[in-house]
């Protein structure tokens, strides 16, 4: 079973109040982070480097916290989603 098949087994209920993942400073990503490690560490590929900025697709987050550990500048604010929102398992 590949990664895409495994990710299909989870769902996500997005919180319209906002993301539980925040990049504190796009400037720090542009100037101080050469390798953009959050794009590699995240198993759900939530972070993408597009048009000179990090974009966050929080509605696919697996809530593992790898991004905040892998960011060399501690530039990601990570918290669990509010109760009733976030990761939801479809099967099992």
Structure class: alpha+beta
Major beta sheet, strand line-up: 1-6
The helix content is 10-25%
CATH names the topology as: Alpha-Beta Plaits
Number of domains: 1
Shape: globular
Number of strand elements: 6
Q: Radius of gyration over alpha carbons?
A: 14 Å
CATH class: Alpha Beta
Mean pLDDT: 90
Parts with pLDDT < 50 across at least 5 consecutive residues: none
CATH architecture: 2-Layer Sandwich
Secondary-structure element order, N to C: HEEHHEEHEE
The N- and C-terminal alpha carbons lie at a distance of 16 Å
Q: What is the helix tally?
A: 4
Quote the beta fraction: 15-25%
How is the main sheet built?
2 strands, antiparallel
Summarize the structure in words.
24% of the residues lie in helices and 24% in strands. By secondary structure, the protein is an alpha+beta fold. It has a single domain (18-83), classed as Alpha-Beta Plaits, CATH 3.30.70.20. The longest helix is centred in the N-terminal third of the chain and has 7 residues, at 26-32.
List keywords for this structure.
6 strands; about 90 residues; alpha+beta
């Amino acid at each position: 079973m590949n990664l895409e098949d495994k990710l299909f087994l989870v769902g996500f209920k997005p919180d319209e109040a906002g993301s539980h993942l925040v990049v504190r400073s796009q400037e720090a990503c542009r100037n101080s982070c050469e390798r953009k490690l959050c794009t590699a560490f995240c198993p759900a590929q939530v972070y993408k480097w597009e048009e000179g900025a990090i974009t966050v697709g929080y509605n696919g987050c697996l809530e593992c916290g790898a991004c905040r550990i892998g960011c060399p500048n501690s530039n990601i604010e990570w918290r669990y989603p509010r109760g009733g929102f976030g990761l939801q398992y479809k099967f099992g």
